[in-house]
Design goal:
CATH class of the largest domain: Alpha Beta
Number of strands: 6
Distance between the termini: 57 Å
CATH architecture of the largest domain: 2-Layer Sandwich
Number of domains: 3
Radius of gyration: 28 Å
CATH topology of the largest domain: Nucleotidyltransferase, domain 5
Structural class: alpha/beta
Number of helices: 16
Largest sheet: 6 strands, mixed
């Protein structure tokens, strides 16, 4: 028995040594302040399906692994069961018969973190740890910009959205209600309307008149379908509906109201326009880009210092990012030090922001405003600084957005709720940050080793 325990301990020590010294995950492991992060979660709460042997470090580890590997939730679990490096990254080492049996465990952890994790405290702990470790050098430069992290939904059109509402009424609400209260299913023309919708959707060229006609037809039928559902409810004295279905039904009624308004007045702006039936919090965000004039997802205001990004503000509705400059400077001063240089694009240099940076003595890349400077040498210096800051913003900051979207699963957010989308985005950003810190430490260690070898060779030659 003692020999068996000794062999298990020896096996664990060997794997831990290999993990820390020979794997990329081991290097990434050292960049994350696990003790500080686990303190952000309650002690007695556990996500649904969490095994007793999985520590709270494992919840954070799963989220980092999700964005580092780029795997789906189910494939991540499969790799976790067979890869001891992933297990040690989460603070455990599984035995032969141990396994997470719940296939939705990763999404359950994401939901759990969306409820109990303070995102701002998480970001602050990560950044302060890197700062105290000496990984951040140029902390007096602040760069900022806004981007949109798109949600994984099909491109919304008025016809698709209206048909989805009809489909839910006739395939979910009416059948479930009739089955629960033993009512006879009402006769409807749902199949005929479905044939018309499918015929329209298969047309390669959908003219304006044809689209308007099908919209009018579907809206009229949606109104009748809701009326039919209400008539069924009137036959039952005391009926109960699940909270989730009540929320969905309210969304359908709002869609009907908005679509009727849009059909009557196409040029009129609709406040809080719903574009997704199941993600009713999403709003169309007009970005004005050539390939994507409108995006559907979270609009995020990101700040960057020495290559490290953090989420300063986010919203699912459009907002003007230039109004976030003052709070961004304040956040930078709390986490780093006094901001001395600032870089942002051409939407930020409004008069209020110019006044703010002038009072704080911050050099920016904003275009010069007012009379020319009399001191030509100072003018050339200021122009050079503006050009350098502008180049830094357009290459490093905007390049980091593309890196996060292409390599860390932030291109399309596949989370299902508002809170889990936020967790998805934050962990994607900080996984990219942790990889950057890991590479910096590796380069620093290689440089130090080269210097030591050079000194040793010089001493040997002398």
């Amino acid at each position: 028995m003692q020999g068996t325990l000794f062999s298990l301990e020896s096996n664990y020590t060997t794997k831990w040594y290999i993990f820390k010294n020979s794997t990329e995950l081991g290097k990434l492991y050292d960049t994350i302040p696990w003790d500080e992060l686990t303190k952000l979660l309650p002690e007695k709460k556990n996500p649904a399906g969490a095994p007793a042997w999985l520590p709270r470090q494992g919840y954070f580890g799963m989220m980092f692994l999700k964005h580092y590997t780029g795997l789906s939730d189910e494939k991540l679990l499969d790799s976790f069961h067979t890869d001891y490096a992933m297990q040690l990254f989460c603070g455990v080492l599984l035995e032969e018969n141990e396994k997470i049996k719940n296939n939705s465990f990763v999404s359950g952890v994401r939901k759990y973190l969306s409820v109990f994790l303070d995102v701002n405290a998480f970001q602050k702990d990560m950044i302060l740890n890197w700062k105290s470790a000496g990984d951040l050098q140029n902390t007096d430069i602040l760069m900022m910009d806004a981007t949109c992290f798109e949600s994984y939904i099909r491109y919304p059109t008025d016809v698709k959205l209206t048909w989805e509402c009809i489909d839910k009424i006739h395939t979910v609400f009416i059948p479930m209600f009739c089955k629960k209260y033993s009512l006879k299913l009402p006769q409807t023309v749902y199949k005929d309307k479905k044939k018309k919708y499918l015929g329209y959707s298969k047309c390669r060229k959908k003219g304006h008149r044809k689209t308007k006609r099908i919209r009018q037809t579907l809206l009229t039928y949606l109104e009748k379908s809701i009326s039919t559902y209400k008539q069924l409810q009137s036959q039952v004295a005391d009926y109960e509906i699940e909270t989730k279905l009540i929320r969905l039904y309210t969304t359908i009624e709002t869609v009907l109201k908005q679509q009727k308004q849009l059909l009557a007045n196409p040029k009129e702006k609709v406040e809080d326009r719903i574009v997704s039936l199941h993600k009713s919090y999403l709003r169309p965000i007009v970005r004005g880009k050539e390939n994507k004039p409108v995006e559907f997802g979270m609009k995020a205001h990101l700040c960057q210092t020495d290559g490290i990004n953090w989420l300063e503000y986010h919203s699912y509705s459009a907002f003007n990012e230039c109004n976030r400059l003052k709070t961004s400077i304040l956040s930078h001063e709390i986490m780093f030090e006094k901001c001395r240089k600032l870089a942002a694009d051409n939407i930020y240099p409004i008069n209020a922001n110019r006044k703010e940076v002038t009072e704080k003595g911050i050099q920016t890349n904003f275009p010069k405003k007012g009379p020319k400077e009399t001191d030509k040498k100072k003018a050339r210096t200021n122009k050079k600084i503006r050009n350098e800051l502008g180049k830094l913003r357009s290459t490093v900051l905007e390049g980091s957005f593309g890196n996060e979207k292409n390599n860390y699963k932030l291109g399309k957010i596949k989370a299902l709720t508002e809170g889990t989308e936020l967790i998805w985005v934050v962990f994607g950003i900080f996984t990219a940050n942790a990889v950057l810190i890991s590479k910096r430490r590796e380069a620093k260690a290689a440089k130090l080793k080269a210097q030591q070898l050079r000194q040793f060779s010089l001493k040997k030659a002398a």
